[in-house]
Amino acid sequence: MIILCLNCGSSSVKYSLFDKENNRSAAVGLIERVGTEAALISQEAPGKDKYEKSAPCPDFKTAIQWVIDTLTDKQAGVIKDMAVINAVGHRVVHGGPLDKSVLITPEIIELLKSICDLAPLHNPANILGMEAAMAVLPDVKHVVTADTAWHQTMPEHTYMYALPYEWYEKYKIRRYGFHGTSFLYNAKRAAALLGKDPFETNLIICHIGNGASVNAVKNGVSFDTSMGLTPLEGLIMGTRSGDFDASVAFQMMERENITPKEMYNILNKKSGVLGITGKYTDRRDIETAAEKGDARCRLSMEMEGYRIKKYIGAYAAALGRVDAVVFTAGVGERGPAYRHIALQGLENIGIKYDEERNFAALTKNAESLISAPDSAVKAFVIPTDEELVYAEDVAAIVDGTYDAHTKFRYSFQARNYRNGLRDESLKKELAKKPFLKKAIINTPKEILGE
Fold first, then answer.
1. Can you give the pLDDT at residue 35?
2. Domain 196-381 superfamily per CATH
3. Between the chain's N and C termini, which has fewer beta carbons within 10 Å?
């Protein structure tokens, strides 16, 4: 069974081609900076050199076509045509009432469209990806996995807001949470690295990318999370404000004659690190500018790292016992400066941070340990694999063996699980950056060259 997985983010498209029979990725790719004249596609496949190309990519319809063209390209591609695809898995940020992966039907599409205002940066792009793929591959099954589904285990006292209760009764105003597929993958992998039953494991998982959130995992299920009704609440993000006093919005609407729609756009698309720095959303650009003396970029880094630290502390108190803190996603995996700000000084809650290991953990291809050997609470960097989660969901739905994650076992729950494509990339990366070995764990010696 060959499964195409599509993950359309706010400014990117991740994709992978999953070979279920051999339980491996046939190709993985990423389009970055969708909506610009200088978008970049990169694709890796076993036995092939990494493929990269830059070109204008004005919208997500163009991006999906670019994915298809690359997968079937005579030189870079891995399949002759799209006819070999048996099923397609799609990620959607906000699934409303959905509590697990489901087959896409016209009714599901309408449901997702009806709640687009709850995830305005993502749901429209997610739906566009679904519709484009369904048009190209109308005769195969399409499955959607909602990021909100993972969080349906949260207890009432953590997902409710202190607002008029009738708002919840009429409109289901509540905390939903996001990044669920990433949290599911990381929760299972962290438990495996700890050698624990996932349902006896307490974790604080920090998914830090353009969008960012923290998840408190209690006994293997979501207990609390920083994002809320929409992905706007919580951490400071690329263009989203995260937590702030709501009265600021009302004051500025009066002072600047800003409409509610305009304010919503400002908070979602013109705030966060873009609002602080005035020019950047990419944390790599911010770090470079901060090193050159840009005070606002340095302030942005300190604010973002500090907000992460606050949530770690709060969730440590909420959980009572923490087995590990996990960093994942683009900045979480390759942003040691942000992890440094977030983790230093947390010895009082059992986290003994190792600075050398932290700054050696700079790869998306291997799991790393960034806490000291005697740290009571471990700190991991785990490259996320959202596409693998819904690839396995899709395969199980097609086979008729699927169930919610509390009753379903994924391949990556095994401690010795290996991603062959990442191992191949890691070998090449280590040849150029041998210092990465200082932090890498759970990797066979032959891959490390030892």
1. 86
2. ATPase, nucleotide binding domain (3.30.420.40)
3. C
